[in-house]
Write the structure tokens for this entry.
Amino acid sequence: MQRRTLLTSLASGFTALTLASNARSAAPFPLKKTATEWKALVSPAAYGVLFDHGTERAGSSPLNAEKRAGSFVCAACFLPLFDAAQKYESGTGWPSFWQPLPGALGTSTDYKALYPRTEYHCSRCGGHQGHVFDDGPRPTGKRYCNNGVALAFVPQGQPLPALRT
Ligand SMILES: [Zn+2]
């Protein structure tokens, strides 16, 4: 936690030194929509995270406290990304998972902070979800630090929404 806080303040204090905004390539995703189309489908806050590389304020997502069984799907295209059994309380103020569903995510390196971080996104629509770190719990040791606004929760027993096309 302390290291993370230090790095965060370093990063915010030296944004002028940021080398590159994002290294994500223009990889083709199965679902492609224009900015205008996405803006009509998702909230402004969700758009800012998903398609403008934003980060929600820590502690702001109601999904932090979500402890029911179920699925977390991409807020843009509804692809299931995490199972609730893979969620844990990281204490960071962002919904955190130790493993995604198979094939759900793609990754890239971003240099928005002073140090390179591994950004991850929905493999179907390319919507940015969060960053993955190596300080997670067993068995993977990974911490998928997710923006809650980029997810939607579907409790177990309720049907998953049809994938957006
Ligand atoms: Zn998606």
Notes: Confidence is low (pLDDT under 50) at residues 8-24. Strands lie at 70-74, 80-83, 87-88, 96-97, 105-110, 117-122, 128-133, 143-146, 151-155.
